[in-house]
């Protein structure tokens, strides 16, 4: 790539903001490519990441931002967890310094074909499913982005022909040239609005940036049933070949599901019974459709795609069944960090639910889920430092609302109020950073305290 050559020819001064998976991956790649690199984190850096920085002699600071050094950069790589409105980000923009995501940075150092997946819900599942389809067919493929090992770290250490990347709006905010061969926009719902001026369209347009650099020999897979996507597509110019999928109507080209059949129509046709899919729920039929279209674009056989869709195991923290104790089913959907995701989770529950909800509110509108909560939920258990918004919204709609401020307390309360035949569902609607380090930490703690009930019984 031309920019890659420019980077190598000029000793660029790279500054990385954020010392987590994304930031350390970017710093490691910069160091490997012989660029001057400095990493700065206003918080503390976890030991596992500090060791990588120290082992590779990467200059870094923690619990501080040396503004003079940061603002002397030629190129700043920003971790997606740092808000756009952060003071240091404003100063970087004022200076006119190039500001990019790790996604953009790593893109310049690989010739691999990229399949990039975004959307409000289902990103992790669909990304993992496409990776499974490719891996199962013998492709030399990496899995990264917002999942697993950072894209940049893999570009530095591996030599994959393909990457399947889960891509967030925060990563797409800071791209300039990132161009996937196949992009997927699964759906849109109101999420992260606190970072987009509480403007749904602004957030949705950030998602559409996944296709902005694509050309007519690339592909854009999108959801024909999604109202916001359809509205924005009327005014957006997409250069890639557009392929829709639908759960409502047959498509001449793309994919659809009618009755008990999943159908993909491209050069050749792929058909499969929905009942044969390993994943359950309508939203996962849509995810499987999108993944199947990507598989067919990469010339994977019908037989191989069918086998992959039948053998795929759901990812952790996504409708993950933890245990059944005394007739009560415990389900971990910690990744349900917005209202729409929680809607899918509640929709999939067949029995009365004890619903665990709460955390850092992102501008949620609980009216979207109100009717389903009335129908499916027997008790609401709030889990967060500030549960006021949830309590106020549901207090006249549900008799049983409880507040907890730790996972141990939450699971103990759920055990006491659950009855045989109930489902205890962790689908928080919110991000996790008030009480937990990540949604994974929240889900892992849920599983830990649920499984301790079994050990306690055994004793």
UniProtKB/TrEMBL annotation:
Q: Where in the cell is it found?
A: Cytoplasm
- Which residue ranges does the record assign to the Mur ligase central domain? 117-294
Domain Mur ligase C-terminal residue range list: 317-430
The pathway where this protein functions is: Cell wall biogenesis; peptidoglycan biosynthesis
Catalyzed chemical reaction(s)? UDP-N-acetyl-alpha-D-muramoyl-L-alanine + D-glutamate + ATP = UDP-N-acetyl-alpha-D-muramoyl-L-alanyl-D-glutamate + ADP + phosphate + H(+)
Q: Name one GO molecular function term.
A: ATP binding
Q: Name one GO cellular component term.
A: cytoplasm
Give the principal location in a single coarse category. cytoplasm
Give the EC number(s) under which this enzyme is classified.
Answer: 6.3.2.9
Q: Which family does it belong to?
A: Belongs to the MurCDEF family.
General function of this protein: Cell wall formation. Catalyzes the addition of glutamate to the nucleotide precursor UDP-N-acetylmuramoyl-L-alanine (UMA).
Annotated protein name in UniProt: UDP-N-acetylmuramoylalanine--D-glutamate ligase
Which gene name does the record give? murD
């Amino acid at each position: 790539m031309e920019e890659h050559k420019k980077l190598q020819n000029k000793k660029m001064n790279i500054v990385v903001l954020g010392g987590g998976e994304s930031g350390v991956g970017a710093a490691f790649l910069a160091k490997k490519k012989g660029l001057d690199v400095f990493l700065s984190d206003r918080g503390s850096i976890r030991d596992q990441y500090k060791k990588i920085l120290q082992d590779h002699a990467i200059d870094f600071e923690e619990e501080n931002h040396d503004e003079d050094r940061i603002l002397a950069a030629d190129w700043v790589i920003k971790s997606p967890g740092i808000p756009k409105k952060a003071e240091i980000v404003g100063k970087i923009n004022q200076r006119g310094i190039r500001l990019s995501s790790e996604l953009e940075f790593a893109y310049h150092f690989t010739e691999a074909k990229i399949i990039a997946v975004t959307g409000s819900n289902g990103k992790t599942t669909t990304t993992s499913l496409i990776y499974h389809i490719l891996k199962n067919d013998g492709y030399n493929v990496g899995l990264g982005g917002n999942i697993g090992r950072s894209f940049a770290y893999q570009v530095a250490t591996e030599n994959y022909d393909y990457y399947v990347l889960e891509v967030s709006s925060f990563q797409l905010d800071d791209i300039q040239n990132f161009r996937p061969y196949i992009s997927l926009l699964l759906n849109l719902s109101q999420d992260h609005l606190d970072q987009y001026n509480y403007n749904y369209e602004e957030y949705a347009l950030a998602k559409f940036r996944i296709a902005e650099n694509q050309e007519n020999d690339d592909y854009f897979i999108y959801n024909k049933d999604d109202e916001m996507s359809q509205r924005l597509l009327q005014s957006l110019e997409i250069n890639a070949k557009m392929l829709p999928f639908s759960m409502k109507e047959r498509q001449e080209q793309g994919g659809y599901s009618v009755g008990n059949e999943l159908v993909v129509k491209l050069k050749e046709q792929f058909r499969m019974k929905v009942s044969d899919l390993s994943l359950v729920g309508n939203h996962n039929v849509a995810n499987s459709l999108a993944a199947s279209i990507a598989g067919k674009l990469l010339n994977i056989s019908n037989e191989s795609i069918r086998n992959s869709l039948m053998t795929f195991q759901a990812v952790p923290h996504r409708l993950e069944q933890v245990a059944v104790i005394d007739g009560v089913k415990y389900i971990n959907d910690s990744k349900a960090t917005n209202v729409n995701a929680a809607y899918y989770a509640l929709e999939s529950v067949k029995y009365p639910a004890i619903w665990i909800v709460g955390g850092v509110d992102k501008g949620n509108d609980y009216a979207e889920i109100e009717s389903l909560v009335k129908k499916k939920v027997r008790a609401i258990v709030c889990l967060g430092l500030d549960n006021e918004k949830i309590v106020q919204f549901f207090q006249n709609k549900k008799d049983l609302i409880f507040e907890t401020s730790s996972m141990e307390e939450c699971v103990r309360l759920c055990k006491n109020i659950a009855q045989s035949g109930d489902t205890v569902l962790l689908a928080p609607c919110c991000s996790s950073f008030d009480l937990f380090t990540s949604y994974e930490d929240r889900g892992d703690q849920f599983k830990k305290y649920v499984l301790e009930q079994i050990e306690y019984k055994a004793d």
